[in-house]
Design goal:
The chain is of the alpha+beta class. Helices cover about 20% and strands about 25% of the residues. The structure holds the ligand Nc1nc2c(c(=O)[nH]1)N[C@H]1C(S)=C(S)[C@@H](COP(=O)(O)O)O[C@H]1N2 and molybdenum atom.
Length: about 260
């Protein structure tokens, strides 16, 4: 594991500027003038500022072990089945790396072992798909926020674009998604490698998928390959910030 990814670095290092924070309209905190000034001052995001940012960002409900659904339906792509993905899968994803790049000071390339060595968060949550089904599962993974902090966001970074390994339905467009920094630093936003205590299987997004628990199912990008920090979303896909957004779904898919 790279030595800048130590616990100490995660806790102390990596100033994050707040200039690029895209606030969502319904956030009570963002409506307060004091908070706006604080943001526009472009100060660096210290641990305490980060905590202030969490304030007013409710957690999605978490459930207990006995609530876990006996079967967690798989939906959308159930196997990317591209030559590149199949090669990674047949090597047990040992050669897979998650790249975090774009508007960051220090691009990262992380193996599954790197991610599993980081402090883990476990959460039992309900996944709601717009197609009308839900399932409760126990997800485990590394929080995205500390990783972005390690990479060091440039002042103009506003969104995290998730690039996936699959082209849903075999079309030309690769699946992708995007979230803002409010969701990026939300404590329940994790890069999940386990579902119900087992390594993520191919159907559910192996080796790594996003969990962004206050949002609908299609935001939870499976088969993550790269997280690109960007200022604007209009140059990706058809410009609406996600595969399904490009086909008419809302970008902010809050539950
Ligand atoms: N890469 C990728 N991510 C994806 C999809 C997909 O087709 N490809 N489908 C989305 C949709 S609509 C849902 S409901 C969930 C389904 O996740 P699951 O297969 O683990 O149930 O993944 C989301 N993430
Ligand atoms: Mo979905």
């Amino acid at each position: 594991m790279k030595d800048f990814l130590t616990r100490r670095t995660l806790l102390t290092g990596g100033a994050i500027t707040l200039g690029g924070l895209a606030l969502t309209g319904c956030d009570a905190l963002s409506a307060s003038p004091g908070f706006r000034n604080f943001l526009s001052a472009g100060e660096s995001l210290t641990m305490s500022a980060q905590r202030a940012l969490m304030f007013g960002q409710p957690l999605a409900r978490e459930f207990s072990e006995r609530d876990i659904s006996p079967v967690f339906k798989a939906n959308g792509t159930k196997n990317p089945n591209t030559p590149a993905y199949n090669a990674l899968a047949s090597g047990n994803f040992n050669a897979w790396r998650l790249r975090i790049d774009g508007l960051v000071e220090r691009p990262l390339d992380l193996s599954l072992a790197d991610l599993r060595a980081l402090p883990a968060r476990t959460q039992i949550t309900r996944h709601d798909c717009v197609e009308g089904w839900s399932a409760i599962g126990k997800w485990q993974g590394a929080q995205l926020g500390p990783l972005l902090q390690t990479a060091g966001l440039k002042p103009n970074a506003r969104f995290a674009v998730m690039h996936c390994a699959d082209n849903y339905g075999g079309g030309a467009d690769m699946y992708y998604e995007s979230i803002d920094l409010i969701d990026g630093f939300h404590p329940q936003t994790i890069l999940a490698y386990n579902l119900n205590g087992q390594p993520l299987d191919v159907a559910h997004g192996a080796p790594l998928r996003l969990r962004v628990e206050r949002q609908l199912g299609y935001k939870h990008a499976k088969y993550l390959m790269r997280i690109e920090m960007v200022e604007r979303l209009d140059s990706f896909g058809r410009g609406k910030g996600g595969y399904w957004e490009d086909r008419g779904y809302e970008w902010y898919a809050g539950i």
